[in-house]
Amino acid sequence: MPSTDMHRFTSGSITWSLIRFAIPFLCANFLISLYGAADVFIVSYFADSSALSATTTGFQAIFTVMALSIGLGMGGTVLIGQYFGAKREKDVIETIGTVLILFAGLSVICACCMIFMADTITHWMKTPEEAWVGTRNYIRICGGGMIFTFIYDAVSAILRGLGDSKNPLKFVAIAVVINVFLDLLFIGYFKWGASGAAAATIIAQSMSVIIGVIYLKKHNFIFDFQYKSFKFIPEKAKMILKLGIPMAIQQTIVFMSFTIMTIAVNKLGVIASAALGITNRIDGFLIMPALAFGSSISVVTAQNMGAGEIKRAQRSFYIGLLLSLIFAVPSFMMMLIWPERLMALASSDMKIIASGGDFMLAYSPDCILMALVFCINGFFNGCGRTTFTMVNNISSSIIFRIPLILVAKTLYGIGLSMPFSTLPQSLIAVAYFFTNRWKKPVIISQGNN
Question: Taking residues 287-297, what's their average pLDDT?
Fold first, then answer.
C-alpha cells in the first residue's frame, strides 16, 4: 500500500470518517479563502478603491472559468472514489493519468481564451472606468497561469477520491505562504495594485504544484508520474466527462449568476463593488464548514456506493448534514446580528461597511439553506447523480437567482436574491432524495471487475 494518506471509508465509524476527511479539507478551504482574501485585504490596505474593485472583478471573471476545472475535478473525484472503494487499483491508476492529461489540455485552451479576450471580458463585466486597466491586467495574468490552477485542481481532486485530504492541505499551505509574501512585496512595496495580486497568485500556485508533485513522487504515491504512466484512456475520459460535464456546467452557470451579481453591483459604483468583494470573502469563510462536509459526504458516498454499501452511504448524508448545521446556525446568527462588525474586520471605510452590512443582513438565511444544498448535492454527486444536481442548480440560478438580481436596485435587494433562490432548490433536492432513485448504480457495479 502506498504511504500517502489514502483512506477507504467503507468500514468503521461514519462520523469519524466524515470528520477525518472534513477537518483537513476545511483547513485547506480556509487557507484557500485566506489566499484570496489576502489579495483583497492587502490591496485594500496599500491601494485605493479602484484597485480593490479591479481585483474583485477580475477574480470573479477568472473564477467563472475555473468552474470548468472544479466541475470536471469533481467528476474525477467521484470516479476514482468508486473505483477505490471497489478495490480496483488498475482502474484508479488509469483514471489518474487520464485526468491529468485532460486537465492539461483544457488549461491551455482556457489560458488562450483569457489572454486574448481580456478586453472583451472586462467590458462584459461592466467594470467601473477607474478599475478598467487593473481588471484587464488581472485577467490576463491569471489567465496566462491557468495551467497551474487546473493541474492543482486535478491533483486535489485525485487525492480526495482516494480519501486523502491532508496532502491538499499541505500544498495549499505552501501556496498561501508564498502568496502573502509576494502580495506584500508586489502590492505593498512595488505598488503594482491588481496586477501584483494576480502575479502573486500565479507564482504561488505554480510553486505549490511543483512542490506537490515532487512530494508525492518521493512518498510512493499510487501514480508514479513517470512519462510511460501518462496514458489517455478514452473509456475513462468518457466517464469523467459524463460525471464532470454536468457539474462543470452547473458550476459555470452558478458562478455566472454571481458574475451577473458582480456586474449589477458594479453599476452601483466603486463603493458597492468594493463592499461586495469584502462580503464575498467573509461569506466564503462562514460557509466553509458546509462546503467541507458536503465534499466529505461526496467522497464517503462514492467509496461506499462503489463497494455496494448503499445504507452506509445514506447514513453518511444524515450525519454529515447534522455536523454541517452545527456550524451553519452560528454563522447565520453572526451575519444577522453583527453584519457591520463583520465588515469592519476588513475595511475602515464607513461607506463600504454600511453597504456591505446591508448585503450581509439580507443574505444571512442562505447560510442554513446552503448547508443543506452542499450536503445533499455532495451525496447525489457521490452516487453519480450529477445530471440531477446540474438541472436543479441551473434551474435555481436561471429561474430565480438571476432574475431577482436583475430587478434589484440596492445591495440589500441583491442579497435577498440568494436565499430566495436557494429555497426552491433545497425543496426539490429533498423531494428527489425520497424517491430513492439514487440507489441504482450509474457508474460501476460489483459485477463489473
Answer: 88
